[in-house]
Structures are given as C-alpha cells and as structure tokens.
Amino acid sequence: MRVHDITLTRDFSSDDLKCISMKAGRYLSEIILLKPDAVIDVKSLLGMMLYPLKKGFVITIRTKGKDEEEALDFMCEIMDSR
After folding, report:
1. Which residues have CB under 8 Å from 75's CB, separation 6+?
2. Which of 77, 81, 79 is nearest to 7 (CA)?
3. Which of 36, 32, 40 is nearest to 56 (CA)?
4. Domains of the chain by residue range
5. Residue ranges of the HPr domain (predicted)?
6. Does the pTM exceed 0.85?
7. DSSP 44
8. pLDDT band at 82 (very low <50, low <70, confident <90, very high)
C-alpha cells in the first residue's frame, strides 16, 4: 500500500473529476482519496461527483495493488499539475 498527502492547488470541475475517474480505471490497483469527511473510490464516477475537490483541501491518496506505485504517481501528477 502506498499513501501520499497532498494539498490541492485548484478547484476540480465535474469534467475534471470524470476524466480522472475514467483514467484511474486503467490501473488494477484500488485508488482511494481520503478527506476528513469522506472516503472516495476514484474509479467510481458517482463517488467522485458527490465530494467536490476544492483548492486548499488536504487529501490523502491511498493506492493498493499490483500497480500501486504507478497509480499513486498518476494521481499525484494529476492532482498537482492542473
């Protein structure tokens, strides 16, 4: 299992969340976002839409599985770069 904390540098739109969820489906590993008030399965589009990701939020990214390192790298890059 890999875990990384990150502070969001921007707001994520519903289109961003949809794209992230779809791209996360490429990975075999479980990808979870932990917020103080929620546990979000990144591969679940509904889960992603229910909990907005806003600038300044501190989230924990947790990956677990065969390609957990690649999945964590993907999530860190996408959460930081946009």
Report:
1. 4, 24, 31, 42, 61, 63
2. 79
3. 36
4. 2-80
5. 1-82
6. yes
7. -
8. very low
Residue 35 in tokens? 């917020």
Q: Helix 68-81 to helix 14-24 angle, to the nearest 10 degrees?
A: 160
Beta carbons within 10 angstroms of residue 63's beta carbon: 25
Task: Please give the structure tokens belonging to residue 36.
Answer: 């103080």
- pLDDT for the residue 36: 87
Q: Is 59 helix (H, G, I), strand (E, B) or coil?
A: strand
In this structure, what token pair is assigned to residue 3?
Answer: 């875990």
Provide the CATH number for the domain formed by 2-80 in this structure. Answer: 3.30.1340.10
